[in-house]
Amino acid sequence: MSQTIYAASIPLFQQMLGGLKAVLAKAEAHATEKNIDPNAYLQARLYPDMFPLLRQVQIASDFAKGVAARLAGVEVPKLDDNEKTFAELQTRIDTILTFMGTLTEAQFADAATREIVLQPGTPKERRFAGQAYLLTYGLPHFFFHTTTSYAILRHNGIEVGKKDYLSL
Q1: Cα 79 to chain center, whole Å?
Q2: Whole-angstrom distance, CA of residue 86 vs CA of residue 70
Q3: 60-108 confidence digits (pLDDT tens)
Q4: Residues 150, 165: contact at Cβ < 8 Å?
Q5: 93 pairs with which residues across the strands?
Q6: Which of 7, 16, 112 has its CA nearest to residue 64?
Q7: Among residues 140, 124, 165, which one has the least CA distance to residue 63?
Q8: What dihedral angle (degrees, nearest 10) is formed by the CA atoms of 30, 35, 36, 37?
């Protein structure tokens, strides 16, 4: 099971974050080419009560690093969430990809059964076994925010498709 947890998380996060980097690069290039203020994209949202692109990318990357760290049994790296540009978002993703590159399959040996305890924005604890944490909490949240990031840019005219999203 340990290889399955590693295989179902680290390579997937790496692939999807690579896709997110590519989509962000296309958005930045489009803004430059069309002389559009990059903040028009970075602050874009699908609906007024949703987070803008910038925050969606931060949250997606937070889930990738947090899930990976917890499943590996290591401390979750702290990031300041102070990015304001496409370049800073790219650096953030690179930092997380570098962190993931330090994780080994051996660190996931008991990941499926490791107890994960969270307090997601509330004093109430949520407890998971590692496999349930990955499959019913971590991955769904990660995919929601990566997909929303992609959708915001596509909705705003950036020419991206499924291959960009999937980093193929």
Answers
A1: 13
A2: 28
A3: 999 999 999 999 999 999 999 999 999 999 999 999 999 999 999 999 9
A4: yes
A5: none
A6: 16
A7: 140
A8: 120
- Structure pTM? 0.94
Counting every residue written for the chain, the total comes to 168
**For 118, phi and psi rounded to 5 degrees?**
-125, 155
Q: Which residue has the tokens 């969430």?
A: 81
Are the beta carbons of 25 and 160 closer than 8 angstroms? no
Q: Which amino acid is at 56?
A: Q
Task: Give residue-wise pLDDT tens across range 119-163.
Answer: 877 778 899 999 999 999 999 999 999 999 999 999 999 999 999
Domain ranges of the chain: 2-166
The CATH architecture assigned to 2-166 reads: Up-down Bundle (1.20)
Q: What are the C-alpha distances in Å from 155 to residues 46, 47, 61, 83, 151?
A: 8, 11, 21, 22, 6
Burial profile 82-101: b = 16 or more Cβ within 10 angstroms, e = fewer: ebeebeebbebbeebbebbe
pLDDT-based confidence at residue 2 (cuts at 50, 70, 90): very low
